Amino acid sequence: MSNHFDTKYISYVDGELNSNLGQNSERVVFPESSFKSKVRWRLEAMGLIFNWQEKSYANKLKQAIDAFDPHVIHCQFSYEAAKLIQNYETDLPIVINFRGYGASYKLHNKKYVSWLKKILNQKNIHPIFVSNSLKNNLLNKGVRFRNKPNILYTGVDSDIFKRMKNVRLENTVFLQVSNFNDKKGQEITIKAFSNYIKSRENRQSRLVFVGDGKNMTKCKELVDSLNLQDKVLFKGGMNREQIISEMEKSSIFVHHSLTPPNGDQEGIPNSIIEAMSMELPILSTYHSGIPEAVEHGVNGFLCQENDIESYSKQMSAIESWNYLTINREKVIEQFNINSHIDQLKHIYYHILD
User: Fold this and answer.
1) pLDDT tens profile 321-352
2) DSSP assignment string, 155-222
3) Which CATH number among 3.40.50.2000, 3.30.700.20, 3.30.360.10, 3.30.2350.10 corresponds to the domain 173-333?
4) Does domain 9-155+336-352 have CATH number 3.40.50?
5) Angle subtended by helix axes 216-225 and 186-198, to nearest 10
6) In the predicted model, what is the mean pLDDT of the chain?
7) Number of C-alpha atoms within 13 angstroms, CB side, residue 309?
8) Distance between CA 71 and CA 284 in Å, rounded?
9) Which tens digits make up the pLDDT trace of 207-225?
């Protein structure tokens, strides 16, 4: 079999397509703003239905797919896969990626779980999970797999996320790169950092946040209330090159992942893997798939979600650590983008064999 894949990307949402996808991309827009779709959303939220069949969309989707005549269809998000599977009847192999939302929060919807039980029992449906923890979420709901579920960790480019300097910083710099939302735990990090600062006199450490989002204002207000304005920096959104520069200037990477009240979990945050590729020790939580990347006491520390006391103590314990080549080695071995691509090819080959 050839190592070359002809690929077509189809987006069901409106807006500009990512230019990185290449020229063979197409929008087949699902009418999400229609009255009918809004009613469906409401009924789904009430746990009454899980049905995204739409005749006009189905016709357009069929034309787009049949014109390309694929051997495999890959749905990048499990929940959104319904818009394909419920509108396109086929015996072609369909790969479904479970990344977070569709393997955590949406499992509260019994109709969605019933749909998963049905489709994952079909011989042409092949599941992929970005962590074992997300696979276990489905198993705990009684979902079983006709085809073997594959674990395919998200890959990062270790040639790009590579430390060019190995200078011991004069003062400890804790860094978090993420959006400010309910899963990212910035407020817990600020409170733990405040306790850490108070634990010793003349503390010159800094906490740096990169990113934007709905909770940023609340976090800034918390910093003001704790009188940490000169020790906590909010740098806003940054591009990849700027993020790498911030990682070069940091000592420890922090990411206190939380499970919000709605149950929506992450898989393994990309930023943690990128920081590991930059040899940074990690402070995080026993959340979803994170322990599959961060081994407590070996390449970082983990604590329970919302455990501010343990978190602040771990800040003190980890500040003496140096950069960790074992973190980069683990990324190259398990989370490298080239390895990811090779594994995905192997999955395709196995399906088509």
Assistant:
1) 999 999 999 999 999 999 999 999 999 999 99
2) PB-TTTS-----PPPSS-EEEEES--STTS-HHHHHHHHHHHHHTSTT---EEEEE---TTHHHHHHH
3) 3.40.50.2000
4) yes
5) 20
6) 93
7) 0
8) 41
9) 999 999 999 999 999 999 9
